Amino acid sequence: MVMWKGRLVILTGPNKGSVFPIDRELTIGRSQENVICIEDPKVSRKHAVVVPTDKGILLKDLNSGNGTYVGSTKVKEYFLKPGDVIRLGTQLLRYEIEAETKPDSSPSIFEDTQFATEPEGTDLLKIQHTLLELPRVPAHEQFTILQKRLKAIYQANQIIASEHDINALFSKIMDQIFALLPADNGAILLWHRRKKRLVPEFVISKDEEFTISSSVVNRAFNKREAILIEDALKDSRFKTSSSSIIQHRIHSIMCVPLIYQDHCLGVIYVDSRKGSREFTQEDLEMLVALAGPSAIALRNAQYLEMIKQGYRDTLTAIANAVELRDHYTIGHTWRVTQFSIEIAKVLGWPENKLEEVYMGGVLHDVGKIAVDDAILRKTAPLTDEEFEKMKIHPVKGAELLRDIVLFQPIVPYCLYHHERYDGKGYPYGLKGNNIPPEGRLIAVADAFDAMTSNRPYRKGMDPEVAIERIIESKGTQLDPEYADALVEAYNNGRIHSIIQDFYKRDKRSLCCPFCSTHIRIGEEVEINSEIVCPVCGRRILVREMNGILFGELLPQSEAFYTMIPFKPFEK
User: Fold this and answer.
1) How high is the pLDDT of residue 522?
2) How far apart are alpha carbons 330 and 323 in whole angstroms?
3) Residue 229: domain span
4) In a domain, 314, yes or no
5) CA neighbours closer than 13 Å in the CB half-sphere of residue 362
6) C-alpha dihedral over 491, 495, 501, 506, to 10 degrees?
7) What is the block-wise mean pLDDT of the chain (571 residues), using blocks of 10 residues?
8) Cα angle at 148 between 147 and 149, to 5 degrees?
9) What SS3 state is found at 4?
10) Among 119, 198, 436, 482, fewest CB within 10 Å belongs to which?
């Protein structure tokens, strides 16, 4: 098994430019005990850890207060890809794979090689046909050799087809290639629609430096041909240029396209270094045989990723539709969601349940769609009659969700979040543990945000005062255990950044234009740079006018994995 190599580069703060090779577990946090110490109040004492594994470089959040982000996505465990930017608090780090990549440049494993003549490829159908040809050996050996070859391919493809997580799938594909072929380095590159080029998604290497010839991968991708260069050191095409192939003593190269139906998703590239066995036609046939099922598995994993993202986007759209009807509580949904997640973490709820908490928090108030605008947008306290009409929203929300199979698990978050622990809540007047835990969870988060956020008829409470109110409500309005979990999260600094106005008086803060939460901006964050709101997760461009910071909402990142009809590279 080949272990991944890489490094972390600090991009912001006083340690900007510092480089940490990932040759062991790297703990990250505020404490001096960590390998990477980050002085940021929004970073927990032990915030995250980066672990080199045989499947890749694993980033794990250590139940941090403000979460760990890759790009704009909050993650618990995540296999890093080259170029990924990690955000802890307001600090940024980048994962790189090349030892000599400069900290202030994007990592790249491409080096152009100009050939006297283009590398020649072989038609895939011809290779697939020759794979099944019987070798020229005595008859009794032919069947045995062919049987072993087909068995190895079958077993490898079974392993590849069994994986649906795209990061783990990259690893399994390369594991099988390295098990069957004498390769020293390998990479999977996929077409990036926005960048209009092939991008390395997974790299595995035995060497400190890994260089890929862009001419080889471009030819394989553009022509949809399999390329075999048996001995690059003796190939006159390489000797005619100052080639990095010669420089890095690359001995043999293979590159095959990843084709799904009529679409080229990318390529698989492998090489061997001087002293290793050179690749043969049989090796190329084996790689082609693995590439076909790998492309199918990759496309299926991409579809699954898109379905998951589409599901979350649907939740977001529904929640936004509710909030847009009530300008005065804008951001309430997102703050309640994040408060709920932090409470659930303190309670020890498992990771799969936290994902459900996210969905339940986002849709807990969806029933307000059925409430009259005049009531939702009223700037004064509601009358008794208006309040009775408002009280229908938990039931209406549950009715909206319960007929949708995917939404059924989150019905309790919607239906029971206004029940009280003493039985005086609505809609059913349930008491104590008769209230489902999901309802008790949202009730605490909902109450705390209602206290600390602004309304047209009153300002939000000071958080310390609100915490005292939460404590006073234990056993009456709120479940004592869940209330204590909120207090613990607050005392540990895990929810400060979620509170609407917690950083309002900080000169280095701005109001999120999407959820209205004030975000503290570190001194190292430059004007016109991008940040991510810790509450709603939206991308924000930091602006300044007359010494005052403000945010400009950026469009959500487009889906990375996009299958496109095959088109050649533009020269």
Assistant:
1) 75
2) 6
3) 110-303
4) no
5) 22
6) 70
7) 64 76 86 81 87 84 87 83 82 68 37 51 51 49 65 79 80 85 89 83 73 84 89 63 59 91 92 78 89 91 84 81 74 92 91 89 92 85 90 94 90 97 96 97 97 84 95 97 95 86 86 88 81 82 90 68 38 35
8) 90
9) coil
10) 436
Distance from C-alpha of 13 to C-alpha of 480, rounded to nearest angstrom: 41
CA distance 541 to 527: 8
Q: What angle do CA 290, 296, 301 make, to 5 degrees?
A: 120
SS3 82: coil
Q: How far apart are CA 313 and CA 305, in angstroms?
A: 12
Between CA 247 and CA 233 the distance in angstroms is: 10
Return all residues near 416 (Cβ < 8 A) that are at least 6 apart. 394, 428, 430, 435, 436, 438, 439, 440, 442, 443
Joined tokens for residue 488: 């613990």
Distance CA 69, CA 94 (A): 12
CATH number for the domain harbouring residue 256: 3.30.450.40
What CATH number corresponds to the domain at position 364?
1.10.3210.10
CA atoms within 13 A on the CB side of 96: 26
SS3 percent helix, strand, coil of the chain, rounded to 5, is 40, 20, 40
Rounded to whole angstroms, the maximal C-alpha distance in the chain is 95
Quick one: 382 and 275 in the same domain?
no
Q: Is 103 helix (H, G, I), strand (E, B) or coil?
A: coil
Q: Is the peptide bond before 427 cis (omega within 30 degrees of 0)?
A: yes
Tokens of 203: 């790299």
Question: Is there a single domain that holds both residue 375 and residue 451?
Answer: yes
Burial of 317 (0-12, 13-18, 19+ CB in 10 A): exposed
Burial class (CB in 10 A: 0-12, 13-18, 19+), 62: middle
485 and 521, same structural domain? no
**3-state DSSP of 511-540:** ECCCCCCEEECCCCCCCCCEEECCCCCCEE
Q: How many CB atoms lie within 10 A of CB 334?
A: 28
DSSP letters for 224-293? TEEEEES-GGG-HHHHTTT-HHHHTTEEEEEEEEEEETTEEEEEEEEEEETTSPPP-HHHHHHHHHHHHH
CA 252 to the chain's CA centroid:
35
Domains: count for the chain: 4
**What Å distances lie between residue 385 and 18, 326, 382, 391, 458, CA to CA?**
63, 19, 8, 10, 21
Which of 539, 537, 285, 327 shows the shortest CA–CA distance to 453? 327
Q: Both tokens of residue 417?
A: 């979040």
Query: To 10 degrees, what angle do helices 124-131 and 281-324 make?
Result: 120
